[in-house]
Amino acid sequence: MTKCAVCGCPASQRCGKCHLTAYCSKDHQKQHWKSHRTQCSPYKMCHSEEMGRYLEASRDILPGEIILKDSPLVLGPRQVTMPVCLSCFTPVNGSYSCSLCGWPLCGPECQTVVLHNPECQLSRNRPIKVQVHKFMQVNQMYECITPLRCLWLKEHDPARWSALSQMESHLEERVNTELHEVNQANVVDFLYHYLKVTSFTPEEIHTVCGIIDVNGFEIPGPNAIGIYGKACLLEHNCVPNTTRTFDSQLNIVIRAAVKITKGSHISTSYTDPMWGTANRQLHLKTSKYFKCTCSRCHDPTEMGTHLSSLRCGQCPLGLMLPSPSPISPQIWVCNSCSAKLDQQYVEEFLKQTGEKLVNLKEGSLAASEAFLKSTSSKLSENHYYRSDVKLAMAQMYGRAGVQNKSDLHELSKDLLDRKEQLCREVLALADVFSPGESRLRGLMKYELQAACMEKFRRLPKKLKASPQSKAILQECEEALKDASTILLRESPIQDEYQLGLQAEAELADVTALISKFR
Ligand SMILES: C[S@@+](CC[C@H](N)C(=O)[O-])C[C@H]1O[C@@H](n2cnc3c(N)ncnc32)[C@H](O)[C@@H]1O
């Protein structure tokens, strides 16, 4: 039971800033503010020449602690999307359209949602209503919606417009790029000529397009994009120290993934931490317009994991590493025999291997095992292509109800061992790149304990009471604690949340089994 920080009575309200300290009444919250304010917000905003604004811990922050919870300044469909309802973001087929503007929605109740107001009102300059024809494919008409919702704030919500206008757009770097041309055609020209919206200058429109790309967070589940006034201040790090989730109102929740000591920068990852250095650098350069110089990016071994290394073809144990630096490699050199490979050759080889990966039959464990076998003499054990496949396989082995896959109980001993090994390998990487209470670790912990629990069930009765059995159960209990804590932070509409509920239920069973040893 949550207790009031002042009187200890049951508390139903929390401080709106830190969302941690609870109160039984507004009066007690007010009374407590004087002492609470120094503890409340765990971060402060700072500024640097190189990065602009960023957040720094103003006190030590514990793993799992909420650093900030932020409601969206703007919510909209992703730039590249199939037609979706402009209120709830579910895919639409054209069976219902807004009676005022013509944009497809999923039903009359979505027509009354205020989120839809900006494009609804701004589309009414047209002599006829908006007509959408292509439904089962990406539709470029939707690229204008989120920019329109940003521009709408200029007249209708000056405070939000001001917050948005302070955000980084990198407009100068975007001019003369292909992206700028696409935005000119699909957003600027579309607004002017199709929607007849002429109240914003091309520069204003391009600026909000930049702001969306640089600051927007993709929200899984509803497939939307959100722009958040505080969360956008988080800097990038290739080993982030926070995790992010979205609640059912699509507020963003940023938590500490690990302990963050006072004075440390608070970071998130703008890329997938399981990508190799070249891919992370490319993404950051082309969509966020900066070169990451974190210690991981400078380390040719990627913190000892060799996530991007290739195997040397000239000697049995050597690994080829980028030189002179992973950020701008020119040549790859073996760390054992000094053999060399051209950067161009490496790029072409990785491109071809990447194509093989894309063409892997989705969900085919046999094809995935064959991919791992065929790349074992060319790529390092942990190479990001291989780790990507291992991650998928760790979740596929023993997943019931999916075509051609057996239930955990039906897996042979070898395949059960294989699942466990894959989970441990991926977890070891996640420990380095997504440390602490990250979603990836939560998912892998769940899969690992599932394999270990199945091994426990298969033990002969006489061994079930042995110290080894207890150790297996204790590892499963720890893994289920981690998995349920991490995954239950996801939004209830996410599959991860359902897995979290399952982990929580299974945790009770494992704890009961362990108690029999005492
Ligand atoms: C989402 S914004 C972060 C807030 C931004 N610094 C501001 O002042 O509004 C992303 C931009 O911040 C800068 N940035 C973020 N992380 C960085 C990093 N690790 N190194 C250099 N620049 C970074 C880049 O300019 C990037 O495009």
TrEMBL record:
Under the heading PROSITE patterns, the entry gives: SET, ZF_MYND_1, ZF_MYND_2
Alphabetical list of SUPFAM superfamilies matching this protein: HIT/MYND zinc finger-like, SET domain
Mind listing the UniProt keywords for this protein, alphabetically? Answer: Metal-binding, Zinc, Zinc-finger
Supply one GO molecular-function term: protein methyltransferase activity
- Sorted alphabetically, which Pfam families does this protein's record hold? zf-MYND
| Domain of life per record | Eukaryota
Q: Where is the MYND-type domain?
A: 4-40
**Location of the SET domain:** 31-271
- What is the name attached to this protein's record? Protein msta
